[in-house]
Amino acid sequence: MTHPSLFAVGLLATGPLSAPPPPPLTPPVWWQRAIAALQTATERSLSQSATPTGMIVREPSVEFARAEPIAPGASRTVAPLTLPVATRRPATAPAPSSGAQLYQQRRAALAAGRLYTHLPTDSFASTWQTAAAQPTHQQWQQLLHAEARAITRGQGRNRLSVLLGDSLSQWFPVPLLPGGAFWLNQGISGENSQQIRQRLASLRETQPSTFYVMAGINDLRQGASDTVILANLRAIARELRQQHPDAQIVLQSLLPTRRPDLDNARIQRLNQALRQIAREERVSYLHLQPLFADADGQLRAELTTDGLHLNRQGYEVWQTALQAAEQQLRQRQALIAQR
Question: In angstroms, rounded to a whole number, what is the distance separating the alpha carbons of residues 283 and 250?
């Protein structure tokens, strides 16, 4: 193998891997208290649950509320993974800034047998820098399906995490994806929860360790009722569990906004209902809202480009939460394996 992100059958380059350093955030005291409570709840769930041979234990709901940055050495109890890390460019490196550019970059990576989420952000720049024609929704669906097929052939024995959602997931910066796993980005701009649900079949052959699902904000913009939104999110959780019984399914809370046409009180109510759905469907729940909301319950102004979408700093906050979630999931899986 000549490049760590080339798809190939068999083992990849070996060597211990740790998560990339978290962004320089200074968590307040409540953040530290929350993560301590999460660790206690996780240990209690493990001690109380029966584990038949070969069965994967899932908590009814893992409250990853207000995650903290990963402390140095925090993963020492977890067996090191053998996954190469692509060279990361600084945040100032050229990167696609439009749907047309991102689409062409990902097409070029796929054609070269590469995983775009493990390439520098300026990869294949000659193919996308002047791209202007916006791909259709169907073209995006076809591309993401092709990427899913490719990772199915090339994952080998490595962990795979999947981002499943709309534009918030689609534009997650590659350099901020937590280390320790391949990442498959299955976000499509503008999609609602029903459209995301309809794409689940294209992931049937993949073998992820974790799905991170975020959906619903476009439903609100399109006038969907709470009943419809929650029914679709429940169906997504249930169908992913059926298709991928060994994977961890993580429902993420909807983020607040600064848009006057979107009611943040309604978003909070949806998140409360989503947390209950996670318990009932025996999947995990990642409570992001407190990290992104200001004192008035709106999306923090410094984290957004337009009151709805995230800027780099916003994605750094999300990255920190994902790193903590990944760490907790791995530690729990390691404890289960030792029993």
Answer: 6
Q: How far apart are CA 28 and CA 111, in angstroms?
A: 46
The predicted-structure confidence for 245-263, as pLDDT tens digits, reads as follows: 999 999 999 999 999 999 9
Local structure of residue 119 (DSSP, 8 states): S
Cα pseudo-dihedral 90, 95, 195, 223, rounded to 10? 90
The residue behind tokens 């947390």 is: 275
Q: Which CATH number among 3.40.50.1220, 3.40.50.1820, 1.10.10.1150, 3.40.50.1110 corresponds to the domain 62-68+159-338?
A: 3.40.50.1110
- Closest-CA residue to 7 (of 146, 102, 128): 146
Residue 180 backbone class (left: φ over 0; alpha: ψ -120 to 50; beta: rest): left
Q: pTM for the whole thing? A: 0.76
Residue appearing with tokens 């990576």: 109
Helix then strand then coil, in percent of the chain rounded to 5, is 45, 10, 45
Determine which helix (DSSP H) or strand (DSSP E) holds 213, and give its type and residue range: strand 210-214
Predicted confidence (pLDDT) at residue 156 exceeds the cutoff of 90: no
Q: 27: buried, middle or exposed (CB in 10 Å: 19+, 13-18, 0-12)? A: middle
Beta-carbon contacts of residue 65 (< 8 Å; ≥ 6 apart)? 34, 38, 287, 290
Place of tokens 């169906």: 235
